[in-house]
Amino acid sequence: MCLETKKVVSSHLYPAALYVNCRSANDASPVRMGDGVVMQTDRQMQDYLLCEECEDILNRGGEKWTNPKLARLNKTFPLYEILVKGPTGHADETGGIYFASSNPEIDVEKMTHFALGIFWKASVYSWKANERNPMIQLGPYGDLIRLWLRGERAFPEGVCLSVLVARPEQALIVLNGPSATSLRGWHAFLLNVPGVSFILNVGRHMDPEMILTCFHESPQHPVFVSDEIMGLVWKRFVEQFLESRKTKSYLAAKAKRSPIGKPEVK
Ligand SMILES: [Zn+2]
């Protein structure tokens, strides 16, 4: 991230602390989705990528603030609680818009840094054995984001980050993405962390109205709570879950170990 030749340390695509959040009470492993594989896994996406100083920039820049506020398996979701304490911009039965500008408990810089750190790490490395291409292609925006993460330039033009928060009862406890989603005229990437979906839009031809949705650049710093969008994320999750052969064999193996209907004896 500093472009210097230095000793590198073990880096994670998703902050390592999140794996603890995702672990359930009976110590099952976190759920990761993507590549058509949805299963409980212990395989943390990690490799030797960044130097200690750059890891520290990501940690202090956003991970430390954001990690403990994400949703957990026990249905607690500190970020949501903070959000609904503040005034609502607009709300109906399917969701609402909350403005971080009128909620001093939300640190816009830190939350943006958290998300862009993961998007950037995905744009420079595959995070997958036997794959050389980076997970996502950010083109010239990758380096602009890198410089912003390091505090060496202002937030780049042509970059828009939307933040969608689930209600605690709907929060999906997953680490997924970033993956490219198709949009006309510009590029969009989706990242899901427990309870929150981030959509990163980049491109010169982005709809100018998109900037109104940008958590960082819109003066109101909007956060969207939408049951409908979360419903779509759930739907995709379930579809991937059912389609995944690895999931099926995992479930079959698990069923063998603890037959349904027969309580586990401890
Ligand atoms: Zn570095």
What does this structure look like?
The protein has one domain (8-247). The model is unreliable at 36-40 and 258-266 (pLDDT under 50). The protein has helices spanning 17-21, 52-66, 78-85, 108-124, 140-149, 227-243, 245-257; strands spanning 8-12, 31-33, 39-40, 46-51, 88-92, 95-99, 159-165, 174-181, 187-193, 196-202, 222-226. Helix content is 32%, strand content 23%. By secondary structure, the protein is an alpha+beta fold. A nine-stranded mixed beta sheet has the order 3-2-8-9-10-7-11-6-5. The chain binds zinc ion. Zinc ion binds at residues 1-2, 4, 6, 50-51, 53-54.
* Molecules bound to protein: zinc ion
**Envelope shape:** globular
Strand content: 15-25%
Cross-sheet strand order for the largest sheet: 3-2-8-9-10-7-11-6-5
Average pLDDT rating: 82
Q: Estimate percent helicity.
A: 25-40%
Tally of separate domains? 1
Q: What is the CA-CA span between the terminal residues?
A: 47 Å
Pick out the low-confidence regions: 36-40, 258-266
